[in-house]
Design brief:
With 290 residues, the chain is α/β, with parallel strands linked by helices. Strands 1-5-3-4-2 form a five-stranded mixed beta sheet, with helices on both faces. Helix 5 packs antiparallel against helix 6. The chain is built from 15 helices and seven strands. It has two domains: 167 residues, Conserved hypothetical protein from pyrococcus furiosus pfu- 392566-001, ParB domain (Alpha-Beta Complex), CATH 3.90.1530; 117 residues, no CATH class. The termini are far apart.
Length: 290
């Protein structure tokens, strides 16, 4: 492993900047902090954090309006050559704009794209500022763009290697499932429970609509796997779009996993999978009502 690969990753903001504890140092107490017009500063498009709570921003803006921005924002000269780009502190920058500040304290450092991304990832993960999908994508960037190993990333952010591996596996889930996870409608436990399922999208929708616990999600995931007819899987893989759409529609209506298998001619079968007796009772009530 070259010195260039390890430069920055895991050393933390204070060690990399050699400026003391940046997280606690107020702007007035930092010798190298300077004031910059807020319009000269722009966000980093590669910043791993994509979502910011409006309520949190408003609360921070109110504090900044009253006390000022106590912690400087870390920036670098923008790659375009015009202005400065945020390395760490985008949330503070956004809140300062809401507080109608015209200038803010910053620390300016000449940093490469590699160092900029590494600092942003380490800072956000250590502060638990990222949702699970943002965190997983941040780790993937470190692996794909900078060839860091999972062990290196684990040491850098203070997590286990298995945690890094499990997070990155989440990215194999369909986009709709990742959206549920990023928004908080699904937890990490739910995501792990359905990660290897053949129909994670349907299961995710069922979990969200029914408010299922992780244990219930695990049972729901296991239910379709109890079928013993191997020929069903062969037929299922060749299902046409109309059949799959009908399966999804019935699954949404029932809140359960539904599979349709066409046999020879016009014959076939519909399989409804349930994980709890309460769900079976509900099916019976619906049929009796019909």
């Amino acid at each position: 492993m070259t010195a260039e690969r390890t430069r920055g990753l895991g050393r933390g903001l204070s060690a990399l900047l050699n400026d003391g504890d940046l997280a606690d140092a107020p702007a007035a107490g930092s010798k190298s902090a300077q004031m910059l017009p807020i319009e000269e500063i722009s966000a980093n498009p590669d910043q791993p954090r994509r979502t910011f709570s409006e309520d949190d921003l408003k609360s921070l803006a109110a504090s900044i309006a009253e006390k000022g921005l106590l912690q400087p924002v870390l920036v670098r000269p923008a790659p375009t050559g015009v202005g400065y780009q945020i390395v760490a502190g985008e949330r503070r920058w956004r809140a300062a704009q809401l507080a109608r500040l015209h200038e803010i304290p910053v620390l300016v450092r000449d940093l490469t794209d590699r160092e900029t991304l590494e600092i942003a990832i380490v800072e956000n993960v250590q502060r638990a500022d990222l949702n699970p999908v943002e965190e997983a994508r941040a780790y993937k960037q470190l692996v794909d763009r900078f060839e860091h190993t999972q062990d290196e990333i684990a040491r850098a952010v203070g997590k286990s290697r298995s945690h890094i591996a499990n997070m990155m596996r989440l990215l194999a889930l369909p986009a709709s499932v990742l959206e549920h996870l990023a928004s908080g409608r699904l937890t990490m436990g739910h995501a792990r429970a359905i990660a290897t399922a053949p129909n994670p999208e349907v299961l995710a929708d069922n979990i969200v609509s029914q408010g299922l616990s992780v244990r219930q999600a695990e049972n729901l995931m296991k239910a379709p796997q109890d079928k013993k007819a191997p020929e069903t899987k062969a037929v299922s893989s060749a299902k046409d779009a109309d059949t799959r759409a009908l399966e999804q529609d019935l699954s949404h209506r029932l809140g359960l996993t539904v599979e349709i298998d066409h046999g020879k001619g016009e014959a076939g079968r519909v399989t409804i999978s349930y994980s709890r007796l309460e769900q079976l009772d509900d099916i019976c009530r619906r049929l009796n009502a019909g």
